[in-house]
Amino acid sequence: MKKKLVGALMCVAMTATMLAGCGNSSEPATAPAPAEPAAPAQTQAAAPAETTPAEAPAETQAAEPAASGDVVTVGFAQVGHESDWRAANTKNYQDTFSAANGYELSFVDCDNDHAVQIETVRGFIEQELDYICIAPIQSAGWDTVLQEAQDAGIPVLIVDRAVDADASLYTTALGCDMVAEGEAAGNWLAEYLNGEDANILVIEGSVGASATLGRTEGFNNIVAQNSNWTVLDSQSGDFTQAGGQEVMESFIKSYSDFNVVVCQNDNEAYGAMDAMDAAGITYGTDGDVIIISFDATHDGLQYTLDGKITCNVECNPLQAGFAEGVIKKLEAGESVDAWTLVEDEAFVAPGIESAYAVTMSQEVLDGRAY
Ligand code: GYE
Fold it and tell me: 109 pairs with which residues across the strands?
């Protein structure tokens, strides 16, 4: 294994609060139990919204206000329950689109199955819901059902991840800029390595998801600018802890000369840490391997604070307020933006100063809402 060179900026500040046994199965890293994917949508109600609606200048299509009386019916075809990020995102939608807030939310966990997600959207169309939110499992394959929703006159919000369908087929899209996230990770790595070689292993997210495609593209943009960086391998860990562990175990069998592991979400990073622990490979600001992660969920940032994940690029899961902002405008007969960006930032372990990221502290962690 190649030894990581530690520059002058990178003094280690491991804290006494370091978690014992990184990524072990007792960590609260798993999402709630799955809903039956093929089951009919369940109506859910919960606490009031926590987030602020998007303040977006009017730009595109206005829709007819909902015709179903006072209660606004919203269908949400959610990706699944693969990660902590997803659990926070689901809770945020359930809290925001609550009965107390005047909504009837039909929530379906599509269990990472594209066919189930398409049929779920068809079900929402048949039920004549007022609005449909889709967090697309994969970016391809949406034209037909989006056309069906449009023909039925139901506004569709593409949330979190993107589709590659023509934008005229849906009302609006919102989410994080995944390419920018990948570039942030790469830019930080270039700054941190300061000219040293990188032999990189990438644990990608789910195949065909825009979060995977964008983070990969963005990171590769920076790889292309660094002639002494090599991506040794890049495999999908499906955005799960088990997937991250499995891919890392197979990487460890095949490669002995890596000094960077890029995990496209926190749960994969937990699994990768388990695999490296089992193989006696050290990582973090005190070890041989630099771990970069994405999401910056609470537990992921705890590992960043502990110096185990060196850089963690945020993707904010609290996006329901933006969707509600769009729906309120449509209800009022106003036009909405074609696209709303949910902004995020990156975080680095204590002892590191970066132009691209916030240095972690207990205060930063305590201020996390998810
Ligand atoms: O990074 C991952 C989740 O689409 C941004 O999906 C989301 C990604 C997130 O499973 O944890």
Answer: 78
Q: Ligand 1 mean position to 237 CA, how many Å?
A: 12
* Cβ 265 under 6 angstroms from ligand 1: yes
**Average pLDDT, stretch 39-57?**
35
The 10s digit of each residue's pLDDT in 336-352 is 999 999 999 999 999 99
90 lines ligand 1 (CB under 6 A): no
211: CA distance to ligand 1 center in Å?
A: 6
Q: Look at residue 69 in the predicted model and tell me its pLDDT.
A: 57
Enter the tokens of residue 74: 């919203």
* Ligand 1 site, residue 211, Cβ cutoff 6 A: yes
Per-residue tokens: 267:
């749960």
**Per this entry, what is the length of the chain?**
370
What is residue 252's predicted lDDT score, i.e. its pLDDT?
98
Q: Which residues contact 361 (CB under 8 A, 6 or more apart)?
A: 305, 350
Rounded Cα–Cα distance for residues 170 and 150 (Å):
7
Mean pLDDT score, 356-370: 94
Which residues, 6 or more positions from 314, have their beta carbon under 8 angstroms from its beta carbon?
Answer: 181, 294, 295, 296, 344, 345, 346, 347
- Encoded tokens for 156: 């569709």
Nearest residue to 118 (alpha-carbon basis) of 104, 128, 132? 132
Of all protein residues, whose CA lies closest to atom 8 belonging to ligand 1? 211
Scanning the chain, the segments in alpha helix (DSSP H) are 84-96, 114-126, 143-151, 178-193, 210-223, 241-254, 266-279, 298-305, 320-331, 362-366
**Cα-to-centroid distance, 68 and ligand 1 (Å):** 33
Closest CA to 263 of 317, 320, 321, 304: 304
